[in-house]
Design goal:
Blueprint lengths: L1 H28 L2 E7 L11 H13 L8 E7 L4 H13 L4 E5 L1 H10 L5 E5 L4 H4 L12 E5 L4 H13 L5 E6 L6 H13 L2 E6 L6 H8 L5 E4 L3 H5 L1 H10 L4 E3 L2 H5 L5 E5 L1 H16 L15 E6 H6 L6 H6 L2 E3 L1
Helix pairs in contact: 2-12, 3-4, 6-7
């Protein structure tokens, strides 16, 4: 009897162990599903700009999430049209993804509206996440959104600092502002301008057709131009750079490469690759079981500073050596 009892116990143990082993193998084999919401590459139809996608995918691979083997992606892209964005986000949710990677303020907003339960990792450089209701605080958001946001005024300080050092006797600055993302950067640049004794002229633009009219308002007044970040103005970066040069306005934007390489004087903003890599770490943690509400919201840790020396010379400006040596790239 005793031997039979022992045999039964061994059999039960083996069965339970086998079930646990099978469950573990199934969990390891399960392919995670990531929803990707992002804008088209400027000038192309790529679903995610390469400067974001390549470092994001590479970092996921380092964490063991390999496309086609341990992870799959559901892509949805759209231009900044609210109905299109809403439908793109809804489609992602219907695919029952494990996490949504939202790149840009409109996509973060659309993902947030589409689901309060699916984890969302955002890259959003124009929104105050606490004021918007995405999280209760940076340290403990407490909801289904985490990621990297830029709401602090220090970036405005860098824009104005470089312009003040480069433009002799600078006192009047025009500010091009699309109000759709909110007021975080407008308030930041206003605060820094007051501290530096600079006068600002803020001109609102709501759509691309407003831009030419804005530059006609600028004519003859300001000595420099700050272009505040927005998805619409981001897409218009090359055009804005050319218009600023045409109107002989030293200008700065948060789109370093796209703006400065098209002829803008200064580009200063978050490093795209570093930000994408960091967001991939958030995604990997969530796929491994972390709750988004317990992952603190972060601000970008690395920035790109690009100076277009050709534009400076065309405008008759002398860029100080201190700016040249601190620039990540100087276009000569």
């Amino acid at each position: 009897m005793r031997h039979r009892t022992v045999a039964v116990l061994l059999l039960v143990t083996a069965l339970v162990g086998g079930l646990a082993w099978t469950r573990d193998i199934w969990a390891q084999a399960k392919i995670a599903r990531i929803g990707v919401l992002a804008s088209f590459e400027v000038g192309s139809k790529e679903p995610v700009p390469k400067r974001w996608w390549e470092p994001f995918r590479r970092t996921l691979t380092e964490y063991g999430y390999i496309e086609g083997k341990t992870v799959s992606f559901v892509f949805r892209s759209a231009f900044a049209d609210p109905p299109q964005l809403a439908e793109a986000a809804a489609e992602i949710v219907r695919h029952k993804v494990d996490v949504i990677w939202a790149v840009g303020a409109p996509f973060t907003r659309a993902a947030h509206a589409a689901s309060s339960t699916v984890p969302i990792v955002a890259i959003d450089f124009t929104t105050d996440p606490v004021a918007e209701g995405y999280g209760e605080s940076f340290g403990r958001p407490g909801r289904n959104i985490t990621g990297i946001f830029l709401d602090a005024p220090q970036i405005a300080g860098k824009w104005l600092e470089v312009l003040k050092r480069t433009v002799p006797g600078l006192s009047r600055i025009a500010v091009l502002w699309d109000p759709s993302p909110g007021t975080a950067h407008l308030h930041g640049v206003q605060s820094v301008a007051r501290a530096l004794g600079l006068q600002l002229e803020v001109v609102e633009v709501h759509k691309p057709e407003d831009i030419d009219q804005a530059f006609s308002v600028f004519r003859g007044g300001p000595q420099a131009l700050v272009i505040l970040p927005s998805p619409m103005l981001f897409v218009q970066s090359p055009r804005l750079a050319k218009l600023a040069l045409k109107h002989r306005l030293p200008a700065t934007s948060m789109t370093p490469y796209l703006f400065a390489e098209a002829g803008g004087l200064v580009g200063y903003g978050p490093d795209d690759a570093a930000t994408a890599e960091r967001s991939a770490v958030f995604v990997a943690k969530i796929l491994r079981g972390a709750e988004p509400g317990r992952l603190p919201l972060e601000r970008p840790s690395k920035f790109d500073f690009i100076l277009n020396l050709k534009t400076a010379k065309a405008l008759g400006l002398t860029v100080p050596e201190s700016a040249l040596v601190t620039a990540d790239k100087v276009i000569r």
